[in-house]
Specification:
There is one protein chain. By secondary structure, the protein is of the alpha/beta class. The chain folds into two domains: about 90 residues, no CATH class; about 130 residues, Nucleoside Triphosphate Pyrophosphohydrolase (Alpha-Beta Complex), CATH 3.90.79.10. Strands 1, 2, 3, 4, 5, 6, 7, 8, 9, 10, 11 and 12 form a twelve-stranded mixed sheet that branches. Strand 4, helix 1 and strand 5 form a beta-alpha-beta unit. The longest helix is centred in the C-terminal third of the chain and has 16 residues. It is globular.
């Protein structure tokens, strides 16, 4: 399987499956040994039979990348991740994004005495987040959405990462960009789940418990939690 030490470059979650887009310089030689299928697109076409486990596609181009993304709508259940490696990485990203309606959002992980704030929403564990208002910055949106959804007042301490994930709404293909921040709790005296957003409960959890509940979450949320945990480990 693919190693979690893949460079943290652009990552999209298409149908909740991670799609990494890397420049060749970002890929370590040892990583190649950890993939189930490695396909050089200059030498052969990708086939449905190759789309299982963790797949690496070398010499990806914007046009081929878009074809692959469209094929993922028919993804087999045993496909775990796709890593596209191409010299024109920026062009690949833009080619994919232009075929979706982009919605911008922000959210984060609030910390209090070493505990992480999580919410249980629509039978899944999630982190507070929401769409940016017109003209609003991502940082302000993250603070506002967290307070609206949880009642917790918090202050941003740093950036965690950015994720992109897809979904369909009213027959439109949506690609949501979410900027994630690390926040320090200022007050949870008014903490209460926002029922209008389908939030059933809120919990302050130690990281050992976070790992357990994330079994019932989304790949993108697990990615954010892993990034933050790595950041914390690196500062100890």
């Amino acid at each position: 399987m693919a190693n979690s030490s893949i460079p943290f470059s652009v990552i999209l979650f298409l149908n909740d499956r991670p799609i990494h887009i890397l420049h060749p310089s970002e890929l370590e030689e040892a990583e190649a040994l950890r993939y189930d299928h490695i396909i050089d697109l200059r030498l052969s076409q990708f086939r449905a039979a190759d789309f299982s486990g963790h797949v690496m596609l070398l010499n990806a181009t914007p046009t081929i990348a878009l074809k692959i993304v469209n094929r993922l709508d028919e993804h087999p259940e045993d496909l775990l991740s796709v890593t596209m490696v191409g010299k024109n990485k920026k062009e690949i990203e833009e080619k994919i994004k232009c075929h979706f309606k982009i919605i911008k959002a922000a959210g984060g992980v609030v910390i209090k005495n070493g505990l992480w704030l999580f919410m249980f929403r629509r039978k899944m564990w999630d982190l507070p987040k929401g769409k940016l208002d017109l003209g609003e910055s991502s940082r302000n949106a993250a603070v506002r959405e967290i307070e609206e959804e949880t009642g917790v007042k918090a202050e941003i301490k740093g950036k965690i990462c950015t994720t992109w994930h897809t979904y369909t709404m009213q027959n439109s293909r949506i690609l949501k960009r979410t900027k994630w921040y690390l926040l320090q709790c200022q007050s949870d005296a008014a903490m209460y789940p926002q029922a209008e957003e389908g939030i059933e409960s809120l919990e302050w959890l130690a990281y050992s418990d976070v790992q357990k509940i994330l079994a019932n979450s989304f790949s993108s949320i697990r990615y954010v939690a892993d990034r933050l945990h790595r950041m914390q480990e690196n500062t100890r």
